[in-house]
Amino acid sequence: MKMETWINDILATHITPIGAVFRLFVSLLLGGVIGYERKRKGQMAGVRTFALISVGASLLMILSVYVSTVFGYGDPSRIAAQVVSGIGFLGAGAIIQMKGSVRGLTTAAGIWVSAAIGMVVGAGLYLLALLSTMCVLFVLSMLEAYEHKANYAWSSKVVRVKVRGIIESSQAYLDTFEQSDVHVNDTYLKYDYEGDYTIVNFVVLTKSKSDFSDLFDKLSKINETLSITLTNEINN
Predict the structure, then answer these.
(1) Cβ atoms of 226 and 162 closer than 8 Å
(2) Cα angle 93, 94, 100; round to 5
(3) Do the beta carbons of residue 178 and residue 170 sit within 8 Å?
(4) pTM of the model
């Protein structure tokens, strides 16, 4: 009889002490699972971060439902809406722009969806929360493995060519890129008349496993080349 009462409290649409504790525990578990996957990939935000986010969102959702049910006033969606907007600031903190390369977008998205899962658990929708967690893990694990296997991981890089003298045109370089099947998105030039050299930055779209050795050899023969580097930052 006692077990039946506990189950009824857990599955109840209204907030009960046992149901609230169970919802927090489920939020902790699901958030921690997502955080473990992120930490396994070497991300700064790990088990503790995601678990806290999920529990916090669930707690606020429980509070929202409790206030509207017990006191008979208030809109449960108001606190939920504030959680959705507020979690964006936390997600933005996970995004790092480093030397022209943006990192942490997946972690930021994970933080956002972890909060959403916590809110779903706080509302008592356990099956939906479980299915959402499975979808998140599928995206973070299986799709990432497929992406790397298929070599679909495209990224924007900068090929920086430093040549002696002041060059008048970069067309010869663009033709070489085209012959090597490398797409050039943009070109930036820097002239140093005192030092008598030119730096040309070619913003290219490449696959993560691209081999540039043959391309660099061709580029070095166009003019008297001082250096060729592959970087994420444009040298203005």
Answers:
(1) yes
(2) 95
(3) no
(4) 0.61
Instruction: Return the number of other C-beta atoms located less than 10 Å from residue 44's C-beta.
Output: 11
Half-sphere CA count of 197, side-chain side, radius 13 A: 12
Q: Is 31 helix (H, G, I), strand (E, B) or coil?
A: helix
pLDDT surpassing 70 at residue 236: no
Q: Which residue has the tokens 């790397």?
A: 148
Q: Would you mind telling me the total number of residues written for the chain in this entry? A: 236
As given in the structure block, the two tokens for residue 109 are 């998205």
- pLDDT surpasses 80 at 219: yes
Instruction: Report the candidate in 3, 10, 17 with the shortest Cα–Cα distance to residue 121.
Output: 10
Q: What is the DSSP string of 63-111?
A: HHHHHHHHSS-S-HHHHHHHHHHHHHHHHHHT-EEETTEEE-HHHHHHH
- Per mean pLDDT, which range of 33-37, 95-99, 214-218 is the poorest? 95-99
Neighbours of 106 (CB within 10 A): 16
Q: What is the distance between the alpha carbons of residues 24 and 31, in angstroms, rounded to a whole number?
A: 10
Tally the C-alpha atoms within 13 A of residue 189's C-alpha that lie toward its C-beta. 14
pLDDT digit string (tens) for 90-112? Answer: 766 666 544 445 567 777 888 88
What 8-state DSSP symbol labels residue 168? S
pLDDT tens, residue by residue, 130-147: 999 999 888 888 777 676
Helix, strand, coil percent content, the chain, rounded in steps of 5: 55, 20, 25
